[in-house]
Design a protein that fits this description.
By secondary structure, chain A is an alpha/beta fold. Chain A is built from 19 helices and nine strands. Chain A starts with a strand and ends with a helix. Chain B has a four-stranded antiparallel β-sheet with strand order 4-5-3-8, sandwiched between helices. In chain B, strands 1-2 form a two-stranded antiparallel sheet. In chain B, strands 6-7 form a two-stranded antiparallel sheet. By secondary structure, chain B is α+β, with helices and mostly antiparallel strands. Classes of the chains: A alpha/beta, B alpha+beta.
Chain lengths: 358, 299
């Protein structure tokens, strides 16, 4: 089965929650609220009364307007730093009372529609590293990089606040080095890797269960119950695209067809195609994304060899795998492994075997 | 973007009235020409010149506060505009031979306007020199108005990189780059709130400027991190200067909106140029700052 998920035009984001944080930030810099809300379909008196629900599309339009009115590259980082734990009801209490990093990340993963409606989070623990990956929830288009900057700054800031220490995150970005690296350097940290095929934050796994000082167990238990009620009322935890991606990722060893995915959804293939098109993607793109991310995880974090990855992904022969991998990333598996090994400061495993041969 | 025009309501009204009076005087004294008599090329040329003079007037008014220099510039440009305006009207209205004042408007307003404009530009230059003196330590060598940071009015990181490229190009001169940031600013921002935290950065910028030498340059790198270019300065001298800045910030009692005092500490990193590129020098200074930040403060 595929979990229920929201789409670009579903109205469920409290406009007085995260969107207001951005509105306040931009209006503090002298922008007019009417211009900020132009074409969003939101009205200030409804937002201020706490009644307005926004769709992801409306929130994205607000971000688009905010970037035009305050065209400084620091905007996303400042927005992120103001987001969490926030005042978004039960989910903020749940995050603010997380007893350790592992459970804080679990809030982002399992209550994603409440805490991060535009980017989804997937956490993987592999070997001695924990990898927090950020994915486009429902078609962010041109605002995607802004969202990555926002959420990474947000997570880095809130975990520093709750843990009381600066966590040594390693940051990995799918896009090239931007024209304003200083913002990344100061707001995120020194360990930055661009052109690295995934938008992810990595940390030694030992940090996951170190106890944090601020948590209250009772407050957390209450917040957890309320949060589950909120999610049940919404009817979804994550986006439709993410739910389908998760389904494909779980079945990454057995190639899934469009027809199979459609029947798992209880819909016709034509309906599935239409729903995906509405959010600017298509089935093959999602399937490729799921397989690419699986391959990158296996190469970088589990230390698989190229052949092992190819077998894991059910490729019949290594040449085929190399060709597909090159289509996904623009690199050969070996070149990509070297690149990713550098991210983790690890000696390149293939280089080691070369030395052995000498 | 209309920013300053509201300061000059009376000047705008005066220019409009003057232009209207000239028009009315022409209409009262003469008759409109027939279409076949009008030299369209002359109208385009003289009308274009009048339009441009009017545009200059608008740009000047919108960019300047009231004052002596502004008055000279406006009076001068008004003279030029009126002279061209009369020129245009001559093309469409025939005045009787007996009328001579139109020549006075044309030939008198132009040189008078030129003289006043010259006077205005002369004083403008004097004023600019005074402003340059005030801007020292905020900019060096070249000016780029797009690179000012909105919050602190300091120059930003792109300016720093270009500035360093020029400084490092001069062979044989020691340059040290200092990076500064507020210890645990992330916590400070959460505790103070965004507005007070922003004001803290503004006031810190002023405080740092007060403690720098005439030739030093202060930039806002990003967030709470500032960069100081120290030309002609080696590592030892830079360390002394860094100590002075740390001491100044240690004794800076910032007041929140509630009137509470909030003290903070500065983290500092230094890098002296050894033939590196700007980016490499910035990177070394950042690394130095981050390495020192990890060490516990001396008791």
């Amino acid at each position: 089965m595929i979990e229920a998920g929201y789409e670009l035009d579903d109205k469920f984001i409290g406009a007085h929650h995260q969107p207001v944080t951005l509105m306040d930030l931009v209006c503090d810099q002298g922008a007019e609220v009417d211009r900020l809300l132009r074409h969003t379909g939101l009205f200030y008196h409804e937002v201020a009364a706490g009644r307005a629900l926004a769709s992801p599309r409306q929130y994205l339009q607000l971000i688009h307007n905010a970037r035009r009115l305050y065209p400084e590259p620091e905007l996303s980082f400042l927005h992120g730093q103001r987001l969490f734990p926030g005042h978004y009801g039960a989910v903020s209490a749940l995050l603010g009372n997380a007893p350790d990093l592992g459970l804080a990340l679990a809030v982002f993963e399992s209550a994603q529609s409440l805490i991060s409606p535009l980017l989804t989070t997937r956490v993987a623990r592999a070997g001695d590293y924990c990898c927090v990956q950020w994915l486009d929830a429902c078609g962010a288009g041109d605002e995607y990089r802004f969202l990555v900057e926002t959420m990474m700054a947000g997570l880095a800031s809130v975990t520093r606040w709750l843990s009381g220490e600066r966590l040594p995150w390693i940051f990995q970005f799918s896009y090239p080095r931007p024209a304003y690296p200083e913002q990344y350097r100061v707001h995120l940290g020194s360990d930055l890797h661009f052109d690295a095929h995934m938008d992810a934050m990595l940390l030694p796994a030992g940090y996951l269960d170190r106890p944090w000082p601020r948590a209250s167990a009772t407050a957390r238990a209450l917040a957890l119950r309320d949060c589950e009620n909120d999610l049940a009322r919404l009817g979804f935890r994550t986006s439709f695209i993410q739910a389908l991606y998760d389904y494909l990722r779980q079945r990454v060893r057995e190639p899934v067809s469009l027809e199979q995915a459609a029947s798992a959804l209880g819909a016709s293939p034509a309906t599935l195609k239409r729903r995906l098109r509405r959010q600017g993607t298509h089935f093959q793109q999602l399937l490729d994304r799921a397989r690419k991310h699986e391959a990158l995880h296996l190469l970088q974090l589990h230390g698989y060899s190229n052949d092992q990855v190819a077998r894991h992904l059910s490729f019949n022969d290594p040449t085929n795998f190399r060709r597909s991998f090159k289509r996904w990333t623009g690199l050969t598996p070996s070149a990509c492994r070297r690149l990713l090994a550098r991210t983790l400061d690890r000696p390149d495993p293939s280089a080691r075997s070369d030395e052995g041969a000498c | 973007m209309i920013r300053m025009l509201h300061l000059h309501r009376w000047k705008i009204l005066a220019v409009a009235t003057l232009a209207n009076l000239v028009l009315l005087a022409n209409l009262a004294a003469g008759d409109p020409k027939g279409l076949e008599e009008i030299a369209w090329l002359d109208i385009a040329g003289e009308g274009g010149a009048a339009l441009l003079a009017f545009l200059w007037l608008g740009l000047i008014l919108n960019s300047r506060p009231s004052g002596r220099v502004t008055n000279y510039l406006v009076a001068g440009l008004t003279g030029i505009f009126i002279a061209y305006w009369q020129d245009v009207l001559d093309e469409v209205i025939r005045l009787p031979e007996a009328v001579v004042w139109d020549h006075w408007v044309e030939s008198g307003a132009m040189p008078l306007g030129m003289v006043l404009l010259t006077l205005g530009i002369y004083h403008w230059q004097r004023e600019q020199l005074a402003i340059n003196e005030q801007l020292r330590r905020r900019e060096r060598i070249f000016r780029e108005h797009r690179s000012f940071d909105r919050l602190t009015n300091l120059t930003s990181a792109p300016y720093l990189r270009r500035q360093l490229a020029m400084e490092l190009g001069e062979a044989g001169r020691a340059v040290t780059l200092m990076m500064l940031d507020v210890n645990r600013f992330d916590h400070v921002r959460r505790q103070l709130g965004s507005r007070d935290a922003d004001r803290l950065l503004q006031e810190l910028a002023e405080l740092l400027l007060l403690n720098l030498r005439q030739d030093d340059l202060l930039c806002r790198y990003a967030g709470d991190r500032f960069a100081v270019v120290l030309p002609g300065t080696g590592e030892r001298e830079a360390t002394l200067l860094a100590g002075e800045l740390i001491a100044a910030v240690d004794h800076f009692a910032f007041k929140t909106r509630q009137g509470e005092t909030r003290l903070q500490r500065l983290d500092v990193g230094l890098a002296t140029a050894r033939g590196d590129e700007p980016d490499a020098l910035i990177e070394r200074a950042n690394q130095d700052l981050e390495a020192r930040r990890e060490q516990p403060a001396p008791a």
